[in-house]
């Protein structure tokens, strides 16, 4: 009986030490990010890389990145490389990583995985979600108010994007006579398909376009600039791509959200599962306005934004 009692004490002690070690590993060490495309795309992947540098600046940790990571084998290989660099927080910069993180998370018990717009399952995986409907709504208001042909278009990647319905609602709220034409690339980065859709839009008289796909928005804006037409930027503030072309941008502040997630992780406060963020969290905003946009229209949109932030309702009384 005495032997059994001693074994129980030893076993309890080992469990306590194990839990303490695991808890201590929750302090932020080093950070890695997986990117689906290149960091030079001037949109989503550039934003991810800049966000990583923001974490490095705030926490003084080492950061690592890997571009064009799209397969399970490449992900596994990269995670092993990260692990050797003492990384314990890994961002998968896009929803494509969600299914892979669900599958591999148990292989790396001291790494916390974070991705965007995925469905998080398990005890080592968090998915961050931007609520895109409101930003799409306000982008739609601007597009509608600036259209001279009463035809605007949205080139979206996938039908599930919440900013699509938001954009369509915002257009109609601003001017019910404006027609919205919507088409999909079914790919975040298919420039050829996006430009082909743009040609179709232009043939139909569209004069303002919302390219709601991070990998092709720059190419679309550049063509609109050559045509002397308007765009609403997507994800990043794309004002500098064409100050007379980009009316404003619907900006997702990935850098601020990443820093928030890293801060919560470092404080052992980062929840598992799906987390949602919006303008009220200061991680979504409108970008810089072109001088082409009349002051009255800007004020109208800002009033709508203020109302939404305070009430949680869009100005058409749609509650999100």
TrEMBL record:
Cite the source lineage.
Bacteria, Bacillati, Bacillota, Bacilli, Bacillales
InterPro entries, alphabetized: BMP_lipoprotein, Peripla_BP_I, PnrA-like
List the subcellular locations. Cell membrane
Membrane topology label: Lipid-anchor
Start and end residues of each ABC transporter substrate-binding protein PnrA-like domain: 29-307
| Protein name per its UniProtKB record | BMP family ABC transporter substrate-binding protein
Assigned keywords, A-Z: Cell membrane, Lipoprotein, Membrane, Signal
Query: Organism, per UniProt?
Result: Bacillus taeanensis
Q: Which family does it belong to?
A: Belongs to the BMP lipoprotein family.
Its Gene Ontology cellular component terms are: plasma membrane
So which domain of life are we looking at? Bacteria
Q: Which Gene3D superfamilies match?
A: 3.40.50.2300
Record-linked Pfam families:
Bmp
């Amino acid at each position: 009986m005495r032997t059994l009692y001693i074994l129980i004490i030893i076993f309890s002690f080992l469990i306590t030490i194990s839990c303490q070690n695991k808890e201590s590993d929750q302090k932020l060490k080093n950070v890695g990010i997986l990117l689906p495309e290149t960091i030079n795309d001037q949109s989503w992947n550039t934003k991810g890389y800049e966000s990583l540098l923001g974490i490095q600046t705030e926490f003084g940790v080492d950061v690592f990145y890997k571009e064009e990571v799209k397969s399970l084998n490449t992900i596994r290989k990269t995670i092993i490389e990260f692990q050797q660099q003492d990384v314990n927080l890994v961002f998968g910069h896009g929803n494509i990583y969600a299914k892979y993180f669900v599958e591999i998370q148990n292989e790396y018990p001291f790494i916390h995985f974070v991705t965007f717009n995925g469905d998080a399952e398990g005890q080592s995986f968090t998915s961050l979600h931007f609520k895109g409907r409101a930003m799409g709504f306000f982008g739609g208001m601007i597009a509608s108010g600036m259209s001279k042909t009463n035809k605007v278009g949205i080139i979206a990647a996938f039908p599930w994007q919440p900013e699509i319905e938001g954009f369509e609602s915002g257009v109609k709220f601003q001017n019910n006579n404006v027609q919205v034409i919507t088409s999909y690339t079914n790919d975040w980065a298919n420039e050829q398909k996006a430009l082909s859709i743009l040609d179709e839009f232009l043939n139909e008289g569209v004069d303002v376009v919302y390219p709601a796909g991070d990998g092709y928005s720059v190419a679309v804006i550049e063509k609109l600039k050559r045509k002397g037409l308007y765009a609403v930027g997507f994800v990043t503030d794309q004002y500098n791509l064409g100050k007379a072309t980009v009316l404003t941008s619907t900006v997702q502040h990935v850098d601020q959200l990443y820093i928030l997630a890293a801060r919560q992780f470092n404080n052992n406060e980062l929840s598992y599962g799906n987390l949602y963020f919006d303008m009220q969290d200061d991680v979504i905003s409108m970008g810089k306005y072109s001088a082409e946009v009349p002051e009255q229209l800007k004020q109208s949109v800002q009033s709508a934004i203020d109302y939404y932030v305070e009430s949680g309702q869009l100005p058409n009384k749609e509650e999100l």
